[in-house]
C-alpha cells in the first residue's frame, strides 16, 4: 500500500516527477509497518527516515539531486513486504530500499532486493539471517547473539537471577532467535532455564502457558516478543501472581507497551539500541529536530535507527558518486566510523553493525535509561 511521497518541497523547483530546475530526484524506497499490529515500530522508523531525507534535501540533496522517499505500508502483515518491495523496484525504480524493522518482514523482502541487485538496509532487524540472505543486504544495528548475551548478563549479574523461564513467539524469527541466544548465554553463565513455553504473535490469552511458567518458579521471565503481545503477557502474568521481573529485547519498545500494559509493565527491563537521554551532540540535535518536526514527540530507537539508515545510505551514494546497485553496494560495504545519532557505525564483513546496546527500565510509564553495554 503506497503511503505517499515524502521529502519534497524542500528544494525550490523540485517536483516528484523530476525535471524543472532541480535535477532528477534519487528515488529511495521504504517499506514499514505504518498500520496494523506493529504500527508503533513502523511509524517511528518512518518518521526518523523522513526527517533524515528532509534534512538532506534542505542541505542541497545528494550528488546535487534531491532524494525522493517512496514509502509503502506493509500493514504489519506477512505477504505484504514482498509485494511492496517488488513494486518499489519494478514500478518506481528505486536505487535502494530501507526497511523493515521486524526481522520476519525483512527476511521476506531481502531475497527480492538481492535478486534485483538493489541494496537493502534494515534499520533495526536484528536476526542474523537477514544479512545472510546475500551481499546486497545490510543493517545498521547490532544482531541478536549480542543482544541475547546482554540480557543474559543483565539477568544473571544485575538481577542476580539463577532460574529463568523463556516465553517465545514462534511466529517471529526475531523471537525464536533471541530466545535461543539468551538461553545459550544464560546457561553458560551457570544459570538454569526452568521452563520454555511458546505463543503465537497476536494471541490474546496467555494464561495456560503463564500458569506453567509460574509453576516452574523462575527468578525472571524472559519474553523476547513485540510490545503488543508483551503488554498483554505482563498483565496476565500479574493476574496470575507472577511477581518476578519480566525482561525482553528491543521488540518491547513501543509506546503502546505502557498504554496497554500500564501498571503491569512497571519496573520491567529491556535492551534496545538507543536512548533519547544520550548526551552526544548528534543525538541531542536529533531529539530537538524530531520534537520540532513531530509535535513534541520523543524519538525512540527505531526513529534514531531510521534516521541513521537514511544518512548512511546518503553517505554511501556520495562516496560511490553514482546510484547503480553494485557500486552502491560496494560503497555501503565500505562504511567506516560513520558518526550518527545511534553512535558510530562501521559495517563489518557480514554487513552488520557492531554497536553498543542500552538497557532501559519501565519507570513511571516512561522508558528510563539504566546502562550502556559495549560489544
Ligand atoms: N529487532 C527487532 C526485530 O528484528 C525489531 C525492533 C527493532 C524492535 C528496534 C524494536 C526496536 O524484529
Features:
375 residues; alpha/beta; Rossmann fold; 2 domains; 7-stranded mixed sheet; 15 strands; globular
Bound molecules: phenylalanine
Strand percent estimate: 15-25%
Question: What is CATH's topology name of the largest domain?
Answer: Rossmann fold
Task: Kindly report the spatial arrangement of strands forming the biggest sheet.
Answer: 8-7-9-10-11-14-15
* Low-confidence region ranges: 5-21
Structural class by helix and strand composition: alpha/beta
> Any idea of the CATH class of the largest domain?
Alpha Beta
Q: How many independent structural domains?
A: 2
Largest sheet: 7 strands, mixed
Descriptive overview:
The chain has two domains: 8-142 and 278-355, Rossmann fold (3-Layer(aba) Sandwich); 144-272, Response regulator (Rossmann fold, 3-Layer(aba) Sandwich). It is 40% helix and 20% strand. It contains twelve helices and 15 strands. It has helices at 39-58, 80-90, 103-116, 129-132, 144-158, 173-188, 207-215, 227-239, 255-261, 281-293, 301-320, 325-333, and strands spanning 2-6, 26-32, 67-73, 96-98, 120-122, 137-139, 163-169, 192-199, 220-222, 246-248, 269-272, 338-340, 343-345, 357-363, 366-373. Residues 5-21 have low confidence and may be disordered. The chain binds phenylalanine.
Compact description:
The protein is an alpha/beta fold and 375 residues long. It contains 12 helices and 15 strands. The longest helix has 20 residues.
Describe the secondary-structure layout.
Elements: E1 2-6, E2 26-32, H1 39-58, E3 67-73, H2 80-90, E4 96-98, H3 103-116, E5 120-122, H4 129-132, E6 137-139, H5 144-158, E7 163-169, H6 173-188, E8 192-199, H7 207-215, E9 220-222, H8 227-239, E10 246-248, H9 255-261, E11 269-272, H10 281-293, H11 301-320, H12 325-333, E12 338-340, E13 343-345, E14 357-363, E15 366-373
Parallel strand pairs: 2-3, 2-4, 4-5, 5-6, 7-8, 7-9, 9-10, 10-11
Antiparallel strand pairs: 1-3, 11-14, 12-13, 14-15
Helix pairs in contact: 1-11, 2-3, 5-6, 8-9, 11-12
The structure holds phenylalanine.
The site of phenylalanine has 15 residues, from helix 11.
Amino acid at each position: 500500500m503506497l503511503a505517499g511521497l515524502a521529502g519534497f518541497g524542500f528544494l525550490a523547483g523540485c517536483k516528484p516527477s523530476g525535471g524543472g530546475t532541480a535535477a532528477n530526484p534519487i528515488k529511495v524506497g521504504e517499506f514499514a509497518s505504518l498500520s496494523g499490529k506493529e504500527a508503533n515500530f513502523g511509524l517511528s522508523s518512518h518518521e526518523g527516515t523522513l526527517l533524515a531525507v528532509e534534512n538532506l534535501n534542505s542541505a542541497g540533496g545528494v550528488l546535487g539531486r534531491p532524494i525522493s522517499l517512496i514509502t509503502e505500508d506493509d500493514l504489519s502483515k506477512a505477504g505484504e513486504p514482498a509485494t511492496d518491495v517488488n513494486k518499489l523496484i519494478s514500478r518506481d525504480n528505486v536505487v535502494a530500499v530501507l526497511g523493515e524493522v521486524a526481522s520476519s518482514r525483512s527476511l521476506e523482502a531481502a531475497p527480492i532486493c538481492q535478486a534485483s541487485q538493489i541494496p537493502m538496509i534494515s534499520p533495526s532487524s536484528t536476526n542474523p539471517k537477514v544479512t545472510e540472505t546475500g551481499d546486497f543486504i545490510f543493517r545498521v544495528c547490532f544482531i541478536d547473539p549480542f543482544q541475547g548475551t546482554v540480557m543474559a548478563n543483565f539477568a544473571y549479574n544485575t538481577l542476580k537471577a539463577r532460574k529463568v523461564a523463556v516465553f517465545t513467539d514462534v511466529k517471529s524469527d526475531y523471537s525464536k532467535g533471541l530466545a535461543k541466544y539468551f538461553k545459550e548465554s544464560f546457561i553458560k553463565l551457570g544459570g538454569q532455564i526452568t521452563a520454555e513455553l511458546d505463543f503465537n504473535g497476536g494471541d490474546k490469552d496467555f494464561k495456560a502457558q503463564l500458569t506453567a511458567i509460574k509453576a516452574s518458579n523462575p527468578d525472571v521471565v524472559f519474553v523476547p516478543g513485540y510490545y503488543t503481545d508483551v503488554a498483554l503477557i505482563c498483565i496476565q502474568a500479574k493476574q496470575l501472581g507472577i511477581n518476578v521481573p519480566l525482561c525482553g529485547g528491543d521488540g518491547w519498545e513501543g509506546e503502546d507497551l505502557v498504554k496497554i500494559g500500564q501498571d503491569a509493565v512497571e519496573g520491567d527491563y529491556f535492551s534496545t539500541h538507543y536512548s533519547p537521554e544520550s548526551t552526544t551532540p548528534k543525538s541531542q540535535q536529533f531529539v530537538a529536530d524530531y520534537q520540532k518536526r513531530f509535535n513534541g514527540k520523543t524519538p525512540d530507537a527505531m526513529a534514531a535507527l531510521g534516521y541513521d539508515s537514511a544518512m548512511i545510505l546518503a553517505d554511501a551514494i556520495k562516496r560511490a558518486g553514482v546510484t547503480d546497485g553494485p557500486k552502491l553496494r560496494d560503497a555501503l560495504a565500505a562504511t567506516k566510523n560513520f558518526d550518527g545519532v545511534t553512535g558510530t557505525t562501521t559495517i563489518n564483513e557480514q554487513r552488520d553493525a557492531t554497536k553498543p546496546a542500552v538497557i532501559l527500565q519501565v519507570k513511571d510509564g516512561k522508558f528510563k535509561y539504566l546502562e550502556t553495554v559495549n560489544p
